[in-house]
Amino acid sequence: MALKLTLKPNEKMIIGGAVITNGNSKSNLIVENKVPILREKDILNETEVNTPGRRVYFAIQLMYIDEANLVVHHNSYWELVKDFLGAAPSQLAVIDRMSEHILQRQYYKALKLCRELINYEEEIKQHV
User: 103 and 71 in one domain?
Assistant: First the structure.
């Protein structure tokens, strides 16, 4: 089944590891096969990787778009979630679900769940 994407002017996305930037007007793309796709709103730049939850997200993002280095990214992920759980054991259920998606190679679903960790961090910061 094809995926239809509508891109805003100048919106960026990653398709199969390639960074794509739309031109000055809205456009539609139809992706005919299964390939990793991340829209700009879901992409975390390296400069934004400044909390434990964001480091976990970035590791998953790399798994999704850089399959050639999957082992490296998996190893990084497991170390990062171990550290995260050491600081926030209450997030075990989220990390368990996220890890299950990773083991099933459902990286986009894992990214969506990882947003919960990032939101958790934001809530903690607001109370400090």
Answer: yes
Are 36 and 55 members of one domain? no
Residue whose tokens read 């190679």: 105
Range of the domain at 23: 3-42
Tell me the pLDDT tens digit for each residue of 25-44. 999 999 999 899 999 999 99
| 61 and 34 within one domain | no
Residue 5, beta-bridge partner list: 29
Secondary structure letter of residue 1 according to DSSP: -
Is there a contact between 64 and 107 (Cβ–Cβ < 8 Å)?
yes
Query: Does residue 56 sit in the same domain as residue 98?
Result: yes
Give the phi and the psi of residue 127 in degrees, each rounded to 5: -90, -5
Q: Are 117 and 84 in contact (CB under 8 A)?
A: yes
pLDDT in tens, 75-107: 999 999 999 999 999 999 999 999 999 999 999
Report CA torsion sign: 88, 93, 96, 97.
Answer: negative
For 118, residues 6+ apart whose C-beta sits below 8 A from its C-beta are 51, 53, 54, 57
CA distance 115 to 42: 10
The two structure tokens encoding residue 34: 């299964």
